[in-house]
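Lab notebook, bench 4. We co-purified these components, and the gel suggests they stay together. Before we commit to crystallization screens, I want a quick structural picture of the whole thing.
Request: model the full complex, all chains together.
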Amino acid sequence: MSRTDTYVVVGAGQAGGRAAEAIRGAGFSGRLVVVGAERVRPYERPPLSKQVLTGAAAPDTAFLRAPDYYDEHGIELMLNQRVEAIDRGSARLTLAGGETLAYDKLLLATGSRVRRLALPGSELAGIHYLRDLDDSLTIAKALRAGARVVIVGGGYIGLEVAAAARKRGCAVTVLEAGDGLMRRQVAEEVGDWYADLHRRHGVEIVTGANVEAFEGGSRVQAVRLADGTAYPADLAVVGVGILPNVELAADAGLEVDDGIVVDACGRTSDPAIFAAGDVTRHPNPILGRRVRLESWQNAQNQAVAAGRTMAGEETPYAQVPWFWSDQYDVNLQMVGLPDRVDRLVRRGDPEGGAFTLFYLKDGRIVGANAVNSAKDIAPTRKFIETGAKPDPDMLSDPETSLKKVLKAAG
Ligand SMILES: Cc1cc2nc3c(=O)[nH]c(=O)nc-3n(C[C@H](O)[C@H](O)[C@H](O)COP(=O)(O)OP(=O)(O)OC[C@H]3O[C@@H](n4cnc5c(N)ncnc54)[C@H](O)[C@@H]3O)c2cc1C
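Here is the predicted assembly.
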């Protein structure tokens, strides 16, 4: 690395922002440019479906850094600019306006975009998706007391929007195609517990709901299912998953496999190009397999590892995946990424509103869903890292501390 080198980060989201900070923090003294398609400086997305929607926090609390930070650290933010192509032969990027930008090293943090429904009526006004700050502000404005909100998708985004909409006095219906809520993210028992929670808060939950069309003149007025049932709507919010923005990398001939393939330090198949965040498929040595994660933790810490490595400090990324969701006054935390499980052990009392469900495989904890039980997360992570085998009876007894269970497991 020399003082005249140029490092470019594509994507000014959480991963892009944190990677740039890490590159500087590791001592890179050349030119550092972050190119981002959005109009604002890097921010975190979790508040967009929570505090920003309910009005509990101002949108600017989501920003990673104060505006001056970037000038002070010599980080050039090129906002409202989309990178259209990477020419690896000449080490140049082409921006949407036709301008080019040379790089010595490049980091791709292009994140994800929402999966859009292509159904009759999909183009009607009043149908929203939630990915960026502007989406969140638009939805927040539309959540007026008494408005009928139909949410398509019973995953964590849809359910966080449902909780915020109830808080704002809207009438809320959640239409979920599967047979339960958050089936991709949590155990059935936990998803069912959340269905009860939402029903207690007045949300209508419809599972097995096959959405066939949006109806209305110029604005959405109803969401219709394949069985003909129509749910009246003043607005609809669709949360049916995301797709990684891999096209830039794929078109440049980098290895892509449902995510840009990187090593533990964030290197792609081209040693001058790194990637971090939602867009990567990376090895996780604790899980023993490659994963693509859609989470705050990964956007934060993998980006730091890749940024440092790019600046010359080899930093492998190895953490137990962790994720959370806040709905009403209930905090859900998920740790681990269990693929196969042969036993579930419950600790705590679902009726009392606080419990943890542990996933076990061959006697070892491979993951957990903790409902209002954040204190269980750190010890669970230890169990997963060490592969210690807990005594299931001790594990299920809330009177026995997890520290003690861990110690007994040796
Ligand atoms: C509403 C919401 C709530 C969430 N809540 C939680 C939560 O509670 N807990 C949790 O763990 N995770 C949560 N997440 C997930 C977490 O926010 C994401 O995993 C994280 O934002 C990923 O960061 P990223 O920087 O990799 O990608 P992104 O945040 O997607 O950022 C990528 C950026 O790159 C830009 N970009 C893409 N292509 C180009 C291009 N060609 N040129 C220039 N710029 C480009 C995009 O415009 C975007 O700004 C939530 C996500 C959302 C949307």
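The chain has a mean pLDDT of 97. Worth comparing against the SEC data before the next meeting. Residues 10-16, 35-38, 45-46, 48-49, 82-83, 109-112, 130-131, 157, 245, 248, 277-279, 294-297, 299, 323-325 surround flavin-adenine dinucleotide (CB under 6 Å).
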